[in-house]
Automatic annotation (TrEMBL):
SUPFAM superfamilies: FMN-dependent nitroreductase-like. This is Nitroreductase domain-containing protein. InterPro entries: Nitroreductase-like (IPR000415). It comes from Gordonia mangrovi. GO terms for molecular function: oxidoreductase activity.
Length: 409
């Protein structure tokens, strides 16, 4: 087992200094964002940002943690700024301003696995890749084919060191002259301000796989025409209602999976193994309380009309090599395709990372381990109802207490 090296305070206990010593605050100033840069940010905001004035974002995320940053760069890749959808600020260093009126801007998604790992431990590394995969569909819908992306790809590795994380995907946005205004502001930071990670974040980085794949270039992706318009309605069902039509749910999964697979072929990455299970089969293999066990006690998510179980064989060396990482991004791409298709068909949908893989085994090919389930059914919750897994520090364990479901061990 890895051990966490205690900080220099000497010893395992928390000292007073740990509570009161902070890096000096370095002030930043704000400025309006204008021109094409503002419209490019509006495009990215509409893909992965906040939905109006709510806390809800256009993409789902396990525990609502959003463990990645989106970075925007100029065509010459001289400057890079981090978008912060929560405060709607574009953090840009004082000495390298982004040009405000160019035809194209590049973007990159940089993984921040520790944001998930500090809640979910090592399993959080999985969630950060699934979450990024979900975001890639929305970003792909707004990114065009562009010769600039080849240059951005070349540059992205060098920039990753500068930006403190692995770039998982790149794309190019051509803001249209009539595009919406973003309503964001520039947050101009002092370049000398230190960027610090606490010791838990450093541990997360230290135990992450040391090799990562080249970033995906989303230029070639294609999407159903209805998806951009329905994406603002997307949400995760907090619970499922009375049984609906299994044929509708399975039709939705079929269409979404076909679209997802096509895009994965264009990206040249392998999909995970997908097993579609309708309600009758769920009742047969996981009767009564066993579905709630399979969903790690999330009884409120029982009652979907159909689910897709994503699984993979145990790798020989038990490692998360670059191909596995790509396959997990691919799983997120399939997941988001299901979210958008279900939203278009007015079905409830939710990703479910809190599962008990042992319970799903009888439904899978021999040797396969389930790692992610996406469920479709009738959503009875109001749009404002909160997701339990996003509310609590203990995530799925706390769900068991809240819903009182039994867990077989
Ligand atoms: C990879 C992944 C795993 C998730 N796992 C669960 C889960 O186990 N239980 C659950 O209720 N919701 C789960 N969700 C849904 C999130 O809770 C939801 O996206 C988040 O709370 C934000 O809510 P919204 O999607 O409605 O905007 C998951 C979402 C993703 C992308």
């Amino acid at each position: 087992m890895d051990t966490v090296t205690p900080p220099e305070s000497g010893g395992h206990t928390i000292n007073w200094d740990d509570l009161v010593a902070l890096p000096p605050y370095s002030s930043s100033r704000s400025a309006p964002i204008v021109g094409a840069l503002d419209r490019a940010i509006a495009e990215i905001d509409a893909a992965v940002g906040r939905n109006g004035d709510t806390a809800r974002r256009f993409v789902p995320s396990a525990g609502a943690l959003y463990p990645y940053d989106v970075v925007i760069t100029d065509p010459e890749f001289c400057s890079a700024a981090v978008l912060d959808p929560v405060t709607r600020k574009l953090r840009v260093p004082e000495n390298t301003p982004l040009p405000t009126d160019v035809d194209h801007y590049g973007w990159m998604v940089i993984g921040r696995p520790w944001l998930s790992m500090r809640k979910y431990g090592r399993r959080g590394y999985l969630y950060h890749l699934l979450d990024i995969g979900h975001a890639l569909v929305n970003l792909g819908m707004r990114s065009g084919r562009d010769p600039l992306s080849a240059r951005l790809r070349e540059r992205s590795v060098g920039l990753s060191e500068q930006l403190g994380g692995v770039p998982r995907a790149i794309g190019v946005i051509a803001p249209s002259a009539s595009g919406a205004a973003s309503g964001w502001v520039l947050d101009i930071a002092d370049p000398a301000a230190p960027r610090t990670r606490n010791e838990f974040e450093q541990t997360a980085v230290a135990i992450a796989p040391d090799q990562s794949p080249e970033p995906l270039d989303l230029a070639g992706m294609r999407f159903d025409d209805t998806w951009p318009a329905v994406s603002p309605r997307r949400k995760s069902a907090p619970r499922f209602g009375a049984p609906g039509s299994v044929a509708e749910a399975e039709g939705c999964l079929d269409a979404a999976i076909a679209s997802g697979r096509e895009n994965l072929m264009r990206l040249n990455i392998a999909a995970p193994h997908l097993t579609m299970v309708g309600r009758a089969e769920l009742d047969r293999y996981l009767p009564q309380d066993e579905l709630s066990v399979a969903l790690a006690g999330q009884r409120h998510l029982c009652g979907p009309d159909a689910v897709v179980v994503m699984s993979a064989e145990q790798p020989h060396q038990n490692c998360v090599d670059p191909d596995r990482q790509r396959m997990l991004l691919a799983a997120g791409v399939i997941g988001q395709s299901i979210y958008l298709e279900a939203t278009a068909r007015r079905l409830g949908v939710t990703g479910i990372g809190g599962i008990d893989p042992r319970a799903w085994r009888p439904l899978l090919p021999p040797g396969h381990v389930a790692f992610y389930v996406v469920a479709v059914g009738a959503d009875i919750a109001a749009a404002t109802e909160a997701k339990l897994d996003a509310l609590t520090a203990e995530g799925h364990l706390r769900n068991r207490e809240l819903t009182g479901s039994g867990v077989r061990r």
